Amino acid sequence: MSAVSAGTAVPVRRKRMPVAQRVYRVFIYALLTALSALFLVPLFWMVSSALKSSSEVFVFPPVWWPKHPEWGNFKQALTTLPFGLYALNTLLIAVVNVVGNVVSCSLVAYGFARFRFPGRRILFMLLLSTMMIPSQVLLVPQFIMYHDLGWINTFLPLTVPAFFGSAFYVFLLRQFFMTIPPELEEAARIDGAGTFRIFTTIVLPQIKPALTAVAIFSFQGAWNDFLSPLLYLNDQAKYTLQLGLTQFQGSFHTDWNLIMAASVVVILPMLIIFFLGQRYFVQGITMTGTKG
Amino acid sequence: MKRQSNALRRREAVLGYAFISPWIIGFIVFVAGPLVASLYLSFTDYSLLQPAHFIGVQNYVQMVHDPDFWTSLGVTFYYAIVSVPLDLLVALLLAILLNQKVRMMRLYRTLFYLPCVLPPVAVSVLWNWILNPSYGILNRLLAFFGLPQPQWLITPQWTVPAYIVMSVWGVGGAMIILLAGLQDVPQSLYEAAVIDGAGVWAKFRYVTLPMISPVLFFNLVMGIIGAFSYFTQAYVMGSGYGSGAGVNNAGLFYALNIYIQGFSELHMGYASALAWVMFFIVLALTLLVFKSSSMWVYYGGERE
User: Fold this and answer.
1) Which residues cross the membrane (chain A) (predicted)?
2) CATH superfamily of the domain spanning A81-251
3) Is the minimum CB–CB distance between A173 and chain B shorter than 8 Å?
4) Is the ipTM of this complex over 0.90?
5) Gyration radius from chain B CA atoms
6) Are residues B215 and A61, on separate chains, in Cβ contact within 8 Å?
7) Which residues of chain A have pLDDT under 50?
8) Can you identify the CATH homologous superfamily of domain B67-296?
9) Which of A36, B8, B16, B250 has an alpha carbon within 20 to 30 A of B171's alpha carbon?
């Protein structure tokens, strides 16, 4: 998209661009550069604070970049609390959520997209309307249910629900299923392939980008989640990174360099995933807003 | 023939139900059941330790006399009324800038969207530091420009504004949706407008704005719902002050109040009642926006 517009913009500029328009372009770029710098300052400040010595954090005027970066801050921050264990817990929960959501949501979405059955429209409306229910309304009864099941202080409340479909992902995948022509499936059916085999070998490969988007979103959701771990995990050995980070802030409230070092580590995996899969993020977000 | 097609249809229906069965089970167990249970609990004094007993509308009556309830409503509305329009405006501004056929549009888009993917806990911890009244970078920048430096999060009157400032950093999601909306506006409409002698403002006012009004509308609804379920930031940033919700409860957001009532105080019946009131407020506001939307939202084609 941007390559195309850039390609067409260049020759036009070479010919003759009115002065007013040229000034306007310069203004746009200046504004964009200033704004993106402004958006990056908080992250820059996070990294730079993480590398400062305890005294440098509080000097005035502020030091933008430490003279002698204290890489030891990371080691100190990560060893005071078992962040490695927290990271493993979080990763385990996130991976199970990805598997659960991809499997259950693609099944449900395919059901809504391809099969005619009584009540389909109403059920789909019901599915969409669940997105409007604030999670707080369900919190207390869900907690009581998990409590009665003996699931408190286990990863089960954080993982099991993922296997039962999530409205937003079902909606997203259904949109994609609707765009693929049914001829391939019909041909396979004539060749004698069963419905489930058609689904796994012919249909799913065609919507890989959408499945990737669902995988990324559910990873992000599980990785960033705070409320559920806060409610359901009591034992420190079961904490996730987000719980660990609040615990860390609570016990080191003025050691901002260490707190920032821990924060950098907690956001790093999301940053990497974001840069690798940005187009899926953009796609998914766009689908929510414009097709909804 | 007829019989066979009936059998086929039945087979298709059975398969359809089979495919959607995970969601049906999930809906009953994780949504419908808890929804009914929550409504019932809101008429009891349940505390997890003793069996619930029915107390009628007492929870709802208690709410009227509970100062924390009114504080949390005030905090949430204050935040929503300022941050939702402000963030939409900033998001629209960024989207319009990016829609000017700028080079490296994707890079800018990525940068502006970046804060949205970060864990809210880490973001809150970071902003706790940025907003630190004595050593935070924001007040130092304000000092550099000779501006007053508010006691963010420490004085009650500068608590909600701190959350509002932070919310602007998270406009990237709305920006992407608005940008997609802008890109969907047919170029021919702008050309027609230019022929009719429209300037920049007229093009924006009479072409862009009506065409993206459904997207603005969607973001408005989501913003309102978001304010009522605003929890993580309120919990993490409020925890350092007062009794965990800012000085004088100045950061007692509605969802935080539900959490405190239900899971710190174990007033689970009362927390359920609070949640239902929230549900109705959100529903009423959404309906209000929907009702008013016919006056300002334009839908192309036959859609209503």
Assistant:
1) 23-45, 83-110, 122-144, 150-173, 194-219, 258-277
2) MetI-like (1.10.3720.10)
3) no
4) no
5) 24
6) no
7) 1-13, 291-292
8) MetI-like (1.10.3720.10)
9) B250
